[in-house]
């Protein structure tokens, strides 16, 4: 049931601190010093390449994980959408591990990609929320998410739980490769353990999203921009918004704007800037200034709102500071809330958006 909530999507957004904590609980040892994976039928240390394949929101989880695996495990990562993957005759590495990410575990293209990889002799893993699903049965190993049943067509809690699993996996792989010391592992585990409480803090300020939703609801087009590990969150924000509010939205890497999309900017186009104070903040800020100079209405999501003069912004949302293992998970929350409240402004059917099905079992 929806409990006190008006929609399943709203309920599922607010469940995230609990289900992410549940999920992390399965991948962190109880004394909080180590990451633990289910027993693997192969040696993680000898894996030479990671291939991540998924659709939609699950693909954006894969896109975030690419940064983590490259950083912590220094292993080549390839990411693709499932409907493209097998048709391009992918190049598999010897001792490659292919990870398929799917809430339902039934998405036709992702399942077909899994079968393709298995056929080619790759190690296969499925990150699924439904452990009785076809992908769970067919993959060599399952890395489950413990999000509970997700009913809203727009994926929210499954996404952040996928990210939690992928974060733990990335650290585990770094440890297996001998690249993460036990001290560093401890620090990263602490960061992960702190995440659910930080998620609650962000959700507690949801009121501040409503004014932003009112500000953007009449727009025809909206851009989301981010850099680095937050670039996939910009794309996820755009997908969530278009899916349930039917406003045209696109996510871009902030540095790409001047290569084309900036031509779209005028006073009618809101731009959601996802700009945490990581090493890329200055670059993001200068990209946002270029938008403001062309009268774009910039809304800033940041833990450092002072980076741009408040008076020049169309809105802002204050975030806690976090390390790169948890920051993208935290920034997923305001983009979900923004889609939700904008859809409410528009009066669309939040849980059952037009033309969409919860599980896409045709190719
Ligand atoms: O069940 P899956 O994770 O395989 O589903 C993949 C996509 O269909 C799904 O994430 C879709 O993009 C969502 N409706 C996004 O909110």
From TrEMBL:
The segment(s) forming the SIS domain are 40-179, 212-353
List the EC numbers from the record. 2.6.1.16
Residues at the catalytic site = 358
Subcellular location per UniProt equals: Cytoplasm
Query: What's a single GO MF annotation on this record?
Result: carbohydrate derivative binding
* Keywords attached to this entry: Aminotransferase, Cytoplasm, Glutamine amidotransferase, Repeat, Transferase
The yes or no answer to whether the keyword Zinc-finger is present is no
Q: Which GO terms describe its cellular component?
A: cytosol
The biological processes this protein is annotated with in GO are: carbohydrate metabolic process; fructose 6-phosphate metabolic process; protein N-linked glycosylation; UDP-N-acetylglucosamine metabolic process
* Catalysed transformations (reactions): D-fructose 6-phosphate + L-glutamine = D-glucosamine 6-phosphate + L-glutamate
State what this protein does.
Catalyzes the first step in hexosamine metabolism, converting fructose-6P into glucosamine-6P using glutamine as a nitrogen source.
Assembly and binders: Homodimer.
Q: What is this protein called?
A: Glutamine--fructose-6-phosphate aminotransferase [isomerizing]
Residue numbers of the full-length protein present here: 244 to 606 of 606
């Amino acid at each position: 049931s929806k409990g006190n909530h008006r929609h399943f999507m709203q309920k599922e957004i607010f469940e995230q601190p609990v289900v992410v904590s549940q999920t992390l609980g399965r991948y962190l040892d109880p004394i909080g010093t180590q990451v633990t994976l289910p027993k693997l039928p192969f040696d993680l240390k000898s894996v030479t390449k990671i291939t991540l394949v998924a659709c939609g929101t699950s693909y954006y989880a894969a896109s975030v994980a690419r940064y983590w695996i490259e950083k912590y495990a220094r292993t080549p990562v390839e990411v693709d959408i499932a409907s493209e993957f097998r048709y391009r005759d992918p190049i598999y590495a010897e001792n490659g591990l292919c990870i398929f990410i799917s809430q339902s575990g039934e998405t036709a293209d992702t399942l077909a990609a899994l079968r393709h990889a298995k056929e080619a002799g790759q190690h296969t893993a499925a990150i699924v929320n439904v452990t009785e699903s076809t992908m769970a049965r067919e993959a060599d190993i399952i890395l489950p998410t413990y999000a509970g049943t997700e009913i809203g067509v727009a994926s929210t809690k499954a996404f952040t739980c996928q990210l939690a699993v992928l974060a733990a996996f990335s650290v585990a792989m770094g440890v297996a490769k001998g690249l993460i010391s036990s001290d560093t592992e401890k620090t990263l585990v602490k960061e992960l353990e702190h995440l659910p409480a930080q998620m609650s803090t962000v959700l507690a300020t949801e009121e501040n999203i409503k004014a932003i939703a009112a500000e953007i609801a009449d727009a025809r087009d909206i851009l989301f921009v981010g850099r680095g590990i937050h670039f996939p969150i910009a794309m996820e924000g755009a997908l969530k918004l278009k899916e349930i509010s039917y406003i045209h939205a696109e996510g871009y890497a902030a540095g790409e704007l001047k290569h084309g999309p900036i031509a779209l900017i005028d006073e009618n186009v809101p731009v959601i800037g996802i700009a945490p104070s990581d090493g890329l903040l200055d670059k993001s800020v200068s990209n946002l200034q270029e938008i403001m100079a062309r009268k774009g209405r910039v809304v800033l999501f940041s833990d450092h709102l002072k980076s741009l003069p408040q008076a020049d912004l169309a809105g802002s949302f204050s975030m806690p500071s976090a390390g790169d293992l948890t920051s993208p998970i935290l920034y997923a929350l305001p983009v979900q809330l923004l889609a939700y409240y904008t859809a409410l402004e528009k009066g669309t059917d939040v849980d059952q958006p037009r033309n969409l099905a919860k599980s896409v079992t045709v190719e």
